[in-house]
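Title: Request for sanity check on Beta-carotene 15,15'-monooxygenase prediction

Description:
We are preparing a figure and want to confirm that the structure record we downloaded matches what your pipeline produces today. Could someone re-run it with the sequence below and paste the raw structure tokens into this thread? We only need the token string, no images.
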Amino acid sequence: MKTNKERILELKTNGYKISFENVFNLAFENYKKIAVYAGLLFLVTTVFLGIISVLIIAFTYGIANFQDLIKPENLDPKNFSDEFLMIYIASVTLFSCLASPFLAGFIKMAHCAEIDEEFHVSTAFEYYKFSYFKELFVATLTLSLLNMGIASVLEATGIPALSFIGSLTVTLLSILTVPLIIFSDFKVFEAINTSFNLVLKQPLILLGLLIVAYLFLLTGVFMFFIGLFFTMPFLYSTYYAVYKSIIGFE
């Protein structure tokens, strides 16, 4: 029996065939199994982190300064200093890196649902083990820097659409990076390179799946915004379905 890495090597050389309909159906059926549980976990975690963030900012700047900081006129990006923007970008990037193992846990949750294995809150935090955490942290940091670099270069052309297309391209090409790390034990750059290589074998189908996943996610905004927390798991079910359909498991 071939290992995952042996099969992946063959896929990189010979390519593969996938069906949009089959992958979407797998993602949607899987999503229905985790939607409520994962949605509630997203909601509770976001509220908790939001409260902690507000308290930290309030005590850092002082209550009076914090109230002044959140006035609408002070939230206009045009009024932000270069120093503030740098701190903001660095903070968002750091948060994304720290949160990446948590989000990877939802892909694992989707896997558990697929094989009828019980999952718990601890499943979402499973990849904070150091062996996985460092790979996911560096992978997220690398892709974030790559994304920002490409977006900045394309934005300099004066055509905003190019910057968006650049960001979308990086997101699409890296769709398999996290699953390769958590399911196939790939290292950071091996996972990124393999993801790019495999996605380029079937870019249009995978782009269609990614767009549908984001459109589905955005429907949550129209459900009093809180629905976003319950449509979000579909994105991670899609990541899982793509990995399972292309690579599978031993």
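Thanks, this matches our download. The chain has one domain: 4-70+81-246.
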